[in-house]
Amino acid sequence: MDIVIDSLVIEVTRRCNMQCMHCLRGEAQNIDINKKYIDALFDKVSNIYRITFTGGEPTLNVDAIEYTLKKAIEKEICPSFWLATNGKVYSQRLVDVLLDYYAYCLDFGCGSEEICGLAVSLDKFHDEISRKNLYKYKGLAFYDDSKEFKDENKRTLVNEGRAKINKIGVRNITPSEFYTEITDNTLYIEEFYLNAKGEILVDCDLSYETQDKCSYGNILNFDFMMAA
Hints:
The chain has 228 residues and is of the alpha/beta class. 26% of the residues lie in helices and 20% in strands. The radius of gyration is 17 Å and the shape is globular.
């Protein structure tokens, strides 16, 4: 049976170079995703429509981002990409990796400014960052301003991690089950989260502590029909 994922989220690292009081993850951990988990995922799935890279701070593990996108090319599929960075460090290597893959997407006929994106998180909780870093990222054709919260009153913080500890989280997340469909010998999965430990979840807005309680198992021995 073919396995197709609509929205794949990969937690490439749990390291971070900021300590934001609203962080839904909680305390940073010195964990990067092992490439064997990425290999196992691509060995099992037939197609992916969108990959979001998250953390931690994704720029601290560009190796995993590059490796994942190379696996997509090797498998001759073309998922769009999206990630948000805190912008504290400008990563030229990340930019080069994303630009190369973006060119592949456009050549393949599956990429555009609307479906690929890099965003910088700007709000009252994050540390101030270099304007030079910000404008370099803003110069990308696929820059996305959706993480620039100019009006904090319109933002609803998830009640997980540090936001919960600091009593500023207001939106509770109830871990959900997989939404799937089976048609023509294809298992379609709407949301799929692979964390840095290789564990599988559905929701991406969960603290590391909650993730440990809600995992569906490790990708190395996961039977996708369990999600059906």
